[in-house]
Amino acid sequence: MPLAIMKRALTATEVVANLAKLEGWCLSGDGAAVAIEKTFPFADYAHTMAFVNAVAWQAQAQQHHPELLVQFDRCVVRYRTHEVAGISRADFDAAAAVDALAGGAATS
């Protein structure tokens, strides 16, 4: 997909349609701070940090970096595209890739 298409803010209808394709992801925030997010639970800190490091490597490779809230037994991953002040196709692609890393971990 051309970068110009990936780096445009999606319409509300497009966001809802794309959210329906991802298990456990939801909208968070509003206005320019709107994002998609998911909480990934883990058994302990070591598993949480292994996931966080994998997400960081993937984000660097994609050049699309999430906000991460790291806690002992969970990590909240939050995507929005700053350049478009909204949610872009790149956010959904990155979210799907994070799900693959986690093996479909359930949300809380």
Explain the overall architecture:
The protein is of the alpha+beta class and 108 residues long. The protein has one domain: Gyrase A, domain 2 (2-Layer Sandwich), CATH 3.30.1360.20. The chain is 41% helix and 19% strand. It is built from 4 helices and 4 strands; from the N terminus they run ααββαββα. Strands 1-2-4-3 form a 4-stranded antiparallel beta sheet, covered by helices on one side. Helix 3 (45-62) runs antiparallel to helix 4. The chain starts with a helix and ends in a 6-residue tail after the last helix. The model is unreliable at 1-5 (pLDDT under 50).
Write the layout of secondary structure elements.
Blueprint: H1 3-6, H2 12-19, E1 26-28, E2 35-41, H3 45-62, E3 67-71, E4 74-79, H4 89-102
Antiparallel strand pairs: 1-2, 2-4, 3-4
Fold-level CATH name: Gyrase A, domain 2
The tally of structural domains comes to 1
Measured by DSSP, the beta-strand proportion falls in 15-25%
Largest sheet: spatial strand order: 1-2-4-3
The helix/strand order is: HHEEHEEH
Q: What is the highest CATH level, the class? A: Alpha Beta
The percentage helix is 40-55%
The general outline is globular
Q: Structural class given helices, strands, pairing?
A: alpha+beta
CATH superfamily: Transcriptional coactivator/pterin dehydratase
Overall radius of gyration: 13 Å
Strands, total number: 4
**What's the pLDDT, averaged over the residues?**
90
Largest sheet: 4 strands, antiparallel
